[in-house]
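My hope is that you will study the protein record below before we discuss the fold together.
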Amino acid sequence: MNQMNWGLIGPGSIAHTFADAISQSERGKLAAVASSSAERGQAFAKKYNIPTVYDNYQALISDPDIDIIYIATPHSFHYPQAKLCLEGGKNVLLEKPSTITAKQIERLTELAQQKGLFFQEAIWTRFMPVLAQVKEKIKQGAIGKVQYISSTIGFAFQHREETRLFDPKLGGGALLDLGLYPIAVSQCLLDEEPSVIQAMGKVSDKQIDETTIVNMRYPSGIYSQFTCSATGHSPNVMTIVGSNGNIVLPAMFWDTDTAHVYDLAGLVETIRVPHKVNGFEYQIEESMDCVEAGQLYSSLMSHDESIGIIEIMDEIRSQIGLAFSSDIEKL
């Protein structure tokens, strides 16, 4: 088992979760960090004992000792930064959502395939073992025929001192940051993409969606409905409803280490797989497995699925009248 050196772009809040997880890896090492703020980069490196700090991204990409780069910046920066990394010959784990528009993620996957590089969207839920077990329970008929999936995801961010979700220049709003999860989990459990999408939402004067409500119908006849909100504190639970029972992913359902299985009489089983660290470890280890095997993406989250998720969100944005500036939507 060879050591794999990671580089990190953007030492913001989510990067701390990543750094905590990789610190427990037996083969992965966070060897370098790049930040537009030298002060923030130095502070992050000191906290996690990272030996190398760069004050520009190109220097990190040019480092021959770096095997893979995790991009942890706000999603409005994902497309140009991931493009720079792939053009520089680096494997990439890209924080969700992958990009602002479907055209952007399509370009990135094409580039990765042309270069023969590993390129993965980091939707951490998709790599968690509990989700795989839930999918298997559904396949086994534990709750009968699935009828619909219902979920909420939301937080009252207006009560926080600082949040990027109210900044349209950063692709703010509930949909891209939060609504992605119900779409990604539904897509995983049903193995299909919706044929009909109906959406409505409250778009603020700042041009961010405060609350968005979506109904999706799949070719199989199954439905998925969700509400995402940046101003309302939600129960944050997902329920998969079947003809003979249901499965509940309790709050916070996207950080799923527990699932409750019910039949018509009540609770049948509780599935619990506690995270070894914080939940990020699964996508980190899977990424290294794929790089070692020469795979361009994980079978748990394909390029086509990443494109499909953004295509769905493009359609939702169109229906609710949510558009961002050309600066962050451009190719």
Notes: The radius of gyration is 20 Å. The chain has a mean pLDDT of 97. The CA atoms of residues 61 and 88 lie 6 Å apart.
